[in-house]
Every structure is written in structure tokens, then in C-alpha cells.
Design brief:
The chain contains three helices and nine strands; from the N terminus they run H-H-H-E-E-E-E-E-E-E-E-E. It is of the alpha+beta class and about 170 residues long. The protein has a single domain, classed as Beta Barrel (Porin), CATH 2.40.160. A hairpin with a 2-residue loop joins strand 4 and strand 5. The chain is elongated and about 45 Å long.
């Protein structure tokens, strides 16, 4: 039950952020001048992760570096890292594909490898990681809530937290 109490505020935050964005009635041309597009994005996520097979909630760290391209830098390709500080540290490295259907919404997903302890042994396994990030530009910083899902053949986890990013 603690798990659901922790995650309950995130839909409320997302709704509030989208409501604030909807109240900002810029035209596309106004938005284009107000929102600076960057070739590169460096992101940090601090979250709580629910590791499903271990039935725990643990702190997690997400890092990603994305090279944006396309019209208004709507697409991206990069690398990501995630570490979950449970009894057996869960670490993963991923190739990430990024799609920004809206200027404040990023969808990241990609294959990778996980390094985790299973049955007392460290294993390297194929893995998959995905994240959805609502990010709003606040004086050059990209801030907002994030939700994530990751899995390999032995474990799965979901996470929620805060994303902080910079573009350059």
C-alpha cells in the first residue's frame, strides 16, 4: 500500500502541469520563438523504483545523453544509465530512442543490458528501458515528473520521480 501512496501524487502533478501548459495560449510561431531547441540533451532523473520480484521500493538514479535531430529536434538517439540502490544493486545501460510528440513530452525507450544480482550471482542480461517525461523549461532547465519501466528476464521495475535536464 505504501507503493500506491507514493505514486498517487504523480498523476496529480502531471494533470496540473498539463493544465498550466494548456492555459498558456501561444500560437505555434510564438512557441517557436519562446522555446529554444538544442542539439544535445543531458538528463538526470531522481526517482523511487518498485522492484517487482523483490517487493521493495528503492531510490533510483537515471542519466541520459541524447543527440536530438529532425524538424524542431523532435527525434533523438543516445545512451542511458539507470541504477537502483536495492540490496542487490540493479544497473542497466541502454541505447535510447527519443521522440518528442509535444515540446513538453519526451518518450524514451530502448534495448540494453542489465547488471544485477540474481540468486547470489551477478548476471549480465538483455534488458529494455522506457521512460515518459513531462518537462517544462524553467530558465534553461528542463524540469518535470517522469515515469519509467524497465525489465530483463528475471526482474522488472517501475519508477516515478523528478527529471532535471539541460540542453546545449
Amino acid at each position: 500500500m505504501k507503493f500506491f501512496r507514493f505514486f498517487l501524487p504523480f498523476p496529480i502533478l502531471i494533470f496540473a502541469a498539463l493544465s498550466l501548459q494548456a492555459m498558456n495560449n501561444h500560437t505555434h510561431d510564438d512557441h517557436h520563438h519562446d522555446h529554444v531547441h538544442h542539439k544535445y540533451h543531458l538528463g538526470l532523473g531522481l526517482s523511487a523504483a518498485k522492484v517487482l520480484n523483490e517487493d521493495i521500493v528503492a531510490p533510483a538514479l537515471h542519466l541520459h545523453f541524447i543527440r536530438q535531430f529532425g524538424h524542431h529536434y523532435q527525434f533523438g538517439l543516445g545512451l542511458g544509465y539507470e541504477g537502483i540502490a536495492s540490496d542487490d544493486w540493479h544497473n542497466s545501460l541502454n541505447l535510447l530512442f527519443n521522440y518528442r510528440p509535444l515540446h513538453y513530452l519526451s518518450l524514451l525507450a530502448g534495448p540494453g543490458i542489465s547488471f544485477a544480482g540474481h540468486d547470489g550471482h551477478r548476471k549480465i542480461l538483455p534488458a529494455f528501458q522506457s521512460e515518459i517525461i513531462f518537462e517544462f523549461n524553467l530558465r534553461g532547465l528542463h524540469l518535470g515528473p517522469m515515469l519509467g519501466l524497465g525489465f530483463d528476464k528475471h526482474d522488472a521495475h517501475i519508477s516515478a520521480g523528478l527529471h532535471i535536464g539541460i540542453g546545449f
